[in-house]
Amino acid sequence: MNAAEDITVAPEDRLRADLYNYLGLMLAGPPDQMLLDQTQGLSGDDETEIGKAISALSRVAKATSPKKVESEFNALFIGLGRGELLPYASYYLTGFLNEKPLATLRADMAARGMTRAQNVYEPEDNIASLMEMMGGMIVGRFGAPAALDDQKTFFNKHIAPWAGHFFSDLEAAKNSVLYASLGTLGRAFMEIEREAFRMTSG
Fold this sequence. Notes:
Low-confidence stretches: 1-6
């Protein structure tokens, strides 16, 4: 048994990690039928904003197909020349791609033993990668699970300054259908995380 297995991750942290990973997966590329089926099967507690967003996402997923969602994804993020949205920290924070926020992130990734996947050519400061990094840190995919203070530092530095704005843009984007509900879910989750971290000491 290795050291990573010795450390149990609290159920609520596992749920947080699952949500980060799910957002990362949905934003990394158009969902296939399997991911759409899983999305259809999601159910939320309708009393909360996250619950309502999950229920809405599930309903929209039932009415779409991989082909439809692929053209939606392409219009939003790829487009002819460029998509409707540029989901990168550098762009949101400076107005340009490959700027200082990306260099800072790369230094932090190196310090934490995170490396870019072999087949990924996107800059690392894209929203999908950041969601996956956060999910991985919580459950210890890059070594031991990250302490709450470390998660907070990473979140406040690389995600909090722009992710909420990005998810709001995704909600309102003219090409968003399934992704409008994903934007609502992402925005609500970022608000909860920001508030939870604000309330932790350190």
